[in-house]
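[retry 2/3] Ubiquinone biosynthesis O-methyltransferase: previous attempt timed out, resubmitting with same input.
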Amino acid sequence: MPLINADEKELAKFSELAHRWWDPESEFKPLHEINPLRLNWIDEHASIAGKQVLDIGCGGGILTESMARKDAKVTGIDLSEKALAVARLHLFESQLSIDYQNVSAEEFAKRHPATFDVVTCMEMLEHVPDPASIVKACATLVKPGGHVFLSTINRNLKAYLFAIVGAEYVLNMLPRGTHEYAKFLKPAELSRYLRDADLEVQELIGMHYQPLNKTYSLGNGSDINYLMRAIKPQN
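[retry 2/3] Ubiquinone biosynthesis O-methyltransferase: success.
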């Protein structure tokens, strides 16, 4: 694993777009559109009000703020200082209280083991060199009995055609070069990372896009985008 588990090109790419995080018609439009689904799924299973929640790879704070609006006590961490600057600036508008920190998941885990009731890491694992290391950090950070929520993209021909060719080149939903196929993760691989980190997988669910009516939904089938939920055993 590199000294810091991050791809410098990936960091630079998202840092350049940082000022557009909160524009719902920007490159981050898909994140704004799927956020209610992600939030409701997390809250349904973890009832986050009043709980200590950590958002790893928080970027400009779209999910982070929505969890704070549910009265969770939220910390957001990211390695892009530009994205965090936008996230902190947006707090003046939202009037929410969130602790944003520029630190890696691994380093943060060393400082705060077994601190959080809920740990989220959404749309990030497919952008780092060593996703297993991030999963291990999640396991260290979450309290026994706590929940870990993750989302990423499957690695197969269908995912390549829809998530890269379709989303980036045909529908122009995302900037070209947003994703690298080799970094996509099969659900079996992510499940293994979770088990190796002593987390118990509770659910695998797919996120689906309907191009005709341009809506998203959660349901069966994890061929392309999927979410996974795990808990840390009490013992």
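[retry 2/3] Ubiquinone biosynthesis O-methyltransferase: The mean pLDDT is 88.
[retry 2/3] clearing retry counter.
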